[in-house]
From TrEMBL:
PANTHER family: MEMBRANE-ASSOCIATED SALT-INDUCIBLE PROTEIN-LIKE, OS03G0201400 PROTEIN. The keyword Kinase does not apply. It comes from Urochloa decumbens. It comes from the Eukaryota. This is Pentatricopeptide repeat-containing protein. Keywords: Repeat, Transit peptide. The keyword Glycosyltransferase does not apply. Belongs to the PPR family. P subfamily. PPR repeats lie at residues 177-211, 212-246, 247-281, 282-316, 317-351, 352-385, 386-420, 421-455, 456-490, 491-525, 526-560, 593-627, 628-662, 663-697, 698-732, 733-767, 819-853, 854-888.
Length: 986
């Protein structure tokens, strides 16, 4: 047998006895007839096992072995006294060291009998080894004693120590018997260490001993534990040939293994075979079969087996009933589960805690009120709810979005002195954030800290994810910082949620920087993370970077999924690059799905190639990919845009023939085109058809009609329709309001236009850039006495600031105070017209009003400064932006650095570049946007090379693909310059 590695000897437990008592006890026992004297009788009630252990270990003159043994036996007979493993160990050590004669077997068995923990059994093993080490062969224990020790170690699954004891037995020259081998085989089989168990089995066979049923059962168990059911069944069948009779335990082991592996049909075959083998299945066997049938979804078969148990002479136990209840609950049949509870109570079997917890858990999936009623009745019958019970009810109310009920149960839970665990807190926080009850979510998070708990990554990430989905990215970043301060490591979900939130908040540069942070934390970005970033790049129409991310994902060993391809395809198609998208998919060998086809059809349709779009629909159908109403709406929209209503209408019939119901989008597209062509009666009939088919008009549908009324000057009808849509529960959107404001302006109703602006803001609909453009256009036209036509597209080239001030004053008159969005929209207009001076005056005005500029305003001003070559001013805006806690976009640095190089100010460009390297940006994106797409495209090869060297010197994290891309671009640019010079020389 190979020797097992030594286990460190545990440090001796600190003495709990009193030194004075031990010293006095030592003096008393050293006298003759100590047990008869008054001194001992007075001290005896105070003597504990710890005193006895310290007495035997006390230096410098230990007790005589015979005296120690006599005292040990004498004190052990005292009523209420119980020796411990420590007192046994101290005696055995004393006896063995003096090689004193004693019944060591009896002492070791006694020591094992008072061992209640694994730590106690370790002390037993140490004592056995000490006896052998100090006493030699003359103090060897008997095989019976060793077997008892092995069986006791097996109870605690201490196979490593069993190996030591077995080795000790062999070293003592003793022969292991069948009990020894069976104990070892069973222990290792239970542990799943079948290879070690088979070695002991081989030793048993080599010793000439006969196998028995216990041996075979142990091996069958081992095969089942390791998942080798084929060998387990083979051995079960072979047992009679090996001279071992099969018993109930033999069959039940295999039946359990088969049921756990969802092979219930085979286990039922074994049940039949078991009965033919004169083995009566016991309650445990039937319970296993009921559980197996429930796991396979055969609930009715399990119930039939349960109902047949009394006829088979088996009385179901609470565990059997609980198994059936669990099966019903997991299949959603809570009514039947409650029926089992009634059945078991009728049969005199009281439900236990598991019964109630299982039923409550099942009812909380849609019937939480019933679950709470059951809890109350269970408490009245003596049931003590646990944190799991309450958490299930809290979770049930949270799923139903009944937060107040969930909080009520939380308060009941706390008043019953049952503390919430992290799971319960996590469920509550998740639903509070989802419902935008942020203050209560923060209070709950603080409550976790107050109760001495440490929120885990799941709780933190739930809050971060909730904030990001609500658009509160700043709050999410605060929680992220708190998480880091508390030493809780983020996971890939945490980062993915933050990246999603930052991209939704149009902070792509910060989202890209998180990739670097992830990698520094040892977390590999997954497909979802890359896809989210690709979406962000596509949103900004930066397709070169989107493709670079796509390649980076593949080069990192990740396989893009359907969503990744769909994101890129849809963005390309919406940017009228459908052919590029299609060739990309063909090159990659992507199997097109319904979503992909729809994006392509949309792209080709918008590009005017409706014939190919129609071909794609036919190809889609031929490949078994059924188009839906949205697919057809895309084609309808393209035909209507091309004024081909006569071709669009037959598509409705085609959809009907294919069993596809026309959706609200398709109806709205057709209604819009009918109105544009002056077919108002047709449009109204189609609107009636839409509503009668159960389709509820959307804000866009109403806006189509409102737009038509506004164009012909029927403002009253348009306003009436806005009221109608509000009464119908449809909120007007910014497009609706803008169209109505434009209509009012055309009719000269400026009071009504400003009143609509107030109404819009009161309805929490934020005005956008076009809202203020329209107001300013019509305000200007009115101030000119309707003498001039004002074109909104060229408005910003010649509008004066005095007119803007009048507009803002008029807004205040109507109760609308200009906000940062108001100033931002007007500044955006001046920046588009490169009127930097006016934009800066507006900036000063808003700051004077106590309104701080936001990130978007600074970004627009920096771009305008660069466009007008006011780089010093741009640098001051960058500095102000950073001072305000904003991080400039990389595009801002691209404009600045490239512009400075165009002006020949290379030192300032290099200094600015080195400053940004110390900030939180993704260095791959820095190379893409500033070096490759900025400097190289502008022809600044030398400074580009210098800045790349600066990145290398700072050991910036740039992957090999990005580095190869920029160096290749530099070589190509260098070759182009050389060719030009040669051409000039020639």
């Amino acid at each position: 047998m190979p020797r097992l590695p030594p286990v460190p000897r545990p440090a001796a437990a600190a003495s709990t006895s009193t030194p004075d008592i031990v010293a006095e006890l030592g003096r008393i026992i050293s006298t003759r007839r100590w047990n008869k004297g008054a001194a001992y009788k007075r001290l005896a009630p105070s003597v504990t096992a710890a005193h006895v252990a310290d007495l035997f270990r006390a230096p410098p003159a230990p007790l005589h072995p015979a005296t120690a043994l006599a005292f040990f036996e004498w004190v052990g007979r005292r009523p209420g006294f119980r020796h411990t493993t420590a007192s046994h160990a101290a005696l055995l050590q004393l006896l063995a060291r003096r090689r004193a004669p004693a019944n060591y077997d009896k002492l070791v068995v006694s020591m094992i009998s008072c061992s209640d923990t694994a730590e106690d059994m370790r002390e037993v093993v140490d004592a056995i080894q000490a006896i052998r080490r100090t006493g030699g062969a003359r103090l060897a224990l008997s095989p019976k004693c060793y077997n008892f020790a092995l069986r006791s170690l097996s109870r605690f699954d201490m196979t490593e120590y069993m190996g030591k004891v077995y080795s000790q037995l062999v070293q003592d020259g003793l022969l292991p018997d069948t009990t020894t081998y069976n104990t070892m085989i069973m222990a290792y089989c239970k542990e799943g260490s079948l290879a070690v168990a088979q070695r002991y089995f081989q030793l048993l066979r080599e010793s000439g001993m006969e196998l028995d049923t216990f041996t075979c059962n142990a091996l069958v168990l081992g095969y089942c534990r390791t998942g080798d059911l084929r060998k387990a069944c083979w051995l079960l069948l072979m047992m009679p040939l090996l001279g071992c009779r099969r018993n109930e335990y033999s069959y039940t082991i295999v039946i359990q293994g088969l049921c756990e592996a969802r092979c219930v049909w085979e286990s039922l075959v074994l049940l039949s075979m078991m009965q033919q083998d004169a083995c009566s299945p016991n309650l445990h066997t039937y319970t296993l079969l009921i559980k197996g049938l429930c796991k396979e979804g055969r609930i009715d078969d399990a119930r039939m087996l349960l109902d047949n148990l009394p006829r088979r002479g088996v009385v179901p136990s609470v565990r059997t009933y609980n198994t059936m209840i669990d099966g019903y609950c997991k299949s959603g049949r809570t009514k039947d589960a409650l029926g089992i509870k009634s059945l078991m109570e009728g049969n005199g079997c009281d439900p236990d805690d598991w019964t109630y917890n299982s039923l409550i858990h099942g009812l909380c999936d849609g019937k939480t009120d019933e679950a709470e009623e059951l809890l109350n009745s269970a408490i009245a019958r003596g049931f003590t709810p646990t944190v799991v019970t309450f958490t299930n009810i809290i979770n049930g109310y949270c799923k139903a979005e009944r937060i107040d009920d969930a909080l009520r149960v939380k308060n009941i839970m706390m008043s019953s002195k049952c503390k919430l665990d992290l799971q319960a807190y996590g469920v509550l926080i998740n639903v509070l954030v989802k419902k935008d009850r942020i203050k209560e979510a923060k209070e709950t998070l603080n409550e976790i800290f107050a109760n001495g708990l440490a929120p885990n990554v799941v709780i933190y990430t739930s809050i971060i994810d909730g904030y990001c989905k609500l658009g509160k990215v700043g709050a999410a970043l605060d929680v992220f910082k708190l998480m880091e301060r508390e030493g809780c490591r983020p996971n890939v979900w945490t980062y993915s949620s933050l990246i999603y939130g930052l991209i939704q908040d149009q902070k792509l540069h910060k989202a890209m920087a998180l990739i670097t942070t992830m990698q520094e934390d040892g977390i590999t970005p997954g497909v979802i993370t890359y896809t989210t970033l690709i979406q962000g790049q596509c949103n900004r129409h930066d397709f070169d970077n989107a493709f670079r991310l796509f390649e980076m994902m593949e080069q990192n060993g990740l396989t893009p999924d359907e969503q990744a391809y769909n994101v890129l395809t849809d963005a390309l198609c919406k940017s009228r690059r459908a052919e590029e998208a299609y060739s990309f998919l063909v090159r990659k060998g992507v199997v097109l799905t319904e979503v992909t086809y729809t994006s392509l059809i949309d792209g080709f349709s918008k590009a005017g190639n409706t014939d190919f779009a129609a071909t794609l629909i036919e190809k889609m159908i031929n490949e078994g990919c059924k188009p839906d109403s949205y697919t057809y709406s895309v084609l309808l929209h393209a035909l209507c845009k091309q004024k081909k209503l006569h071709q669009a209408l037959p598509i409705l019939d085609q959809m009907t023939l294919r069993g596809i119901k026309c959706n609200i989008v398709s109806y709205t597209i057709l209604i819009d085109e009918m109105i544009r062509e002056g077919k108002h009666d047709h449009a109204k009939r189609l609107f009636s058809e839409m509503t009668s088919s159960g389709q509820k008009p959307s804000a866009t549908t109403y806006t189509v009609f409102i737009n038509s009324y506004c164009k012909i000057g029927q403002i009253e009808e348009a306003e009436h329709l806005i009221g109608e849509m509000e009464r119908g529960g449809v909120s007007p959107d910014v497009v609706t309001y803008n169209i109505f404001i434009d209509g009012c302006g055309h009719m000269g109703y400026m009071d009504r236009a400003f009143s609509t602006l107030k109404r819009m803001i009161d309805a929490s609909c934020e005005p956008n850039y076009w809202t203020y453009c329209l107001l300013l256009k019509h305000f200007l036209k009115t101030s000119l006495g309707n003498a001039h036509y004002v074109d909104a597209s060229g408005l910003w080239n010649w509008v004066e600031l005095d007119t803007v001030w009048q507009l803002l004053d008029r807004m205040v008159k109507y109760g609308v105070n200009p906000t940062v969005e108001t100033y931002g929209s007007i500044i955006a207009g001046f920046c588009k017209a490169t009127r930097l001076e006016e934009a800066c005056v507006l900036l000063d005005r808003m700051c004077g009003k106590g309104i701080s500029p936001n990130e978007e305003i600074y970004t627009m001003l920096i771009k305008c400064c660069c466009d007008t070559k006011h780089f010093k001013k741009a640098l001051s805006f960058v500095s102000n932006m950073i001072d305000c806690g904003f991080q400039p976009h990389l595009e801002s640095y691209q404009y600045l650095i490239t512009g400075l190089c165009d002006e020949g100010d290379y030192d300032k460009a290099k200094s600015l570049f080195c400053e940004l390297l110390g900030m939180d940006y993704n260095h791959n994106e820095v190379v893409w946007k500033i070096l490759n797409d900025g400097l190289l495209k502008a022809g600044h090869l030398d400074i580009c090379s210098q800045l790349l060297s600066a990145m290398e010197n700072r050991q910036c994290h740039v992957n090999s693909q990005t580095y190869a891309m920029v160096t290749n671009s530099m070589h190509e640019a260098s070759g182009s310059v050389v060719s030009e010079l040669r051409g000039e020389a020639a």
